[in-house]
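--- STAGE predict ---
source: upstream dedup step, 1 unique chain passed
mode: sequence only
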Amino acid sequence: MRLKDKKLTKLYYAIGEVAEMFDVNASLIRFWEKEFSILKPKKNKKGNRLFTVKDIKNLERIYDLVKVKGFTLEGAKKELMKKNRVNHRVDKEMFSVNLQVMERLEKIKLKLIKINSEI
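--- STAGE serialize ---
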């Protein structure tokens, strides 16, 4: 299952729509919601699940691990946790690099202001 071919244009998707995207029963989506903490669909006043694009992307990762690659649920959970740790580390590194760039730009800005005032 690849969602890359489908455009996700709505803010929220009902569980039936999501189940159809993956060609699975809605009960499997509900089961995965209980098993995987990264799935956090919102619920409306009636209690209907409303999945965001982020939820659907996470479901795609779960589907790929469990249905395509044959991971057990525990194995899929460990794999997702491992990937999340890597992503967190990359985010921290990018923040550090962005901070350094901002500091350099601020110094350049101050030099330009000084040059401009001397003219």
